[in-house]
Amino acid sequence: MSQERTTDELSRRGVLKGTAAAGTAAVAGSTPGYLEQLDEPRPAIQNDVEGRTFILEGIVSGWIGLEPDEIDGATGPPLRLVEGVENTVVWINGDGANHNFMIEDEDGDILEATEFTDEAGEFEELTFTAEPEMEEYYCDPHPAQMRGPVELIDPEETHELEVLVEDEDGDPFEAEVYLDDRHTFSNIASRPGPDEDIGIARFDLLEDGEYSLEVWTYGHERVTEEVTIDGDDEELTVAMSQLETEDPVETFELVLEEDAWRGVEPEEIADETNPTLELEADETYAVEWENAIGRRLDEGEMEPGEQLPGHNFVVAEGDDSDEWNTHVRSPFLDEDGESQTVEFVAKEEMSVYLDQSQLEAVGEITVSGDGS
Prior knowledge:
By secondary structure, the protein is mostly beta strands. It is built from no helices and 25 strands. The strands form 6 sheets. It has a 5-stranded mixed beta sheet with strand order 3-9-8-5-6, with no helix packed on it.
């Protein structure tokens, strides 16, 4: 299964740097139902259109990026607008509080603004010509937390990177692809039809420079390399190799309950809430866990729109919930009593395990040894 942005912001939709994945292959996270109401073009890449279209969800804690892929799941993402032409921002009221969308210059003067709405699920659209004086966008009732930068770009000075991801047999493969702080999947950006399997990730409107590329998915080796954009579009192929793991040296048994994990085995973690998992670097471990709550989320937590597709087991590094770097993310389980086994190799950087749909269900991981 697949992973997402390795240093990105956190939201219920794009939690842990990217969109949720289900099954053994990465798929788009649960797109909120209200996106289907939008009669807006939502191209995967936008080099071929004059301006750009962005879709945001507004909640009191911040603006959450929905589309295009480069902002999916990011809080207060930069809006990279094409200068001198019409761009469009569509935003959805995600929590029923009173919101609007405004753009200001460096002096705080309002340049563009939408109407206010206080009904969850309603959306507003703003089409405007991007000008150099545009500095930031924000919500007037919540200007501190609901704010993000505006960046202007010249499409004639930008280029596209196409990444073809293959498995060990050379067949198209679905994985998560990061380019610096951008994230997508190797099938979403190419928008394949239902019978196609293209395995391509695209990043558009890239300025000349050096970029860090990372491709990975659960159960496979990460691929990292530097990519140079220098005056032309670029293409490259990435081959994904399966991780070779030893037999687990220890198996932990956990039950996922409301807002917490409960330890079952071994005896030292039995009945503990969010027990600490003590690991040795470079050893293989297994976690057998049971979903004891089905698909439940607190009422209103994902409103409006659809829930994430159940619950899963994630291993990450970092202690700031806005900066979790994910190492393992399992497929989702959505039935009460359903169980799953996840195997992984312990790394020194690992520090937490959690459920992607219940961010309160977080336990610590300690890893001893230097990995040598």
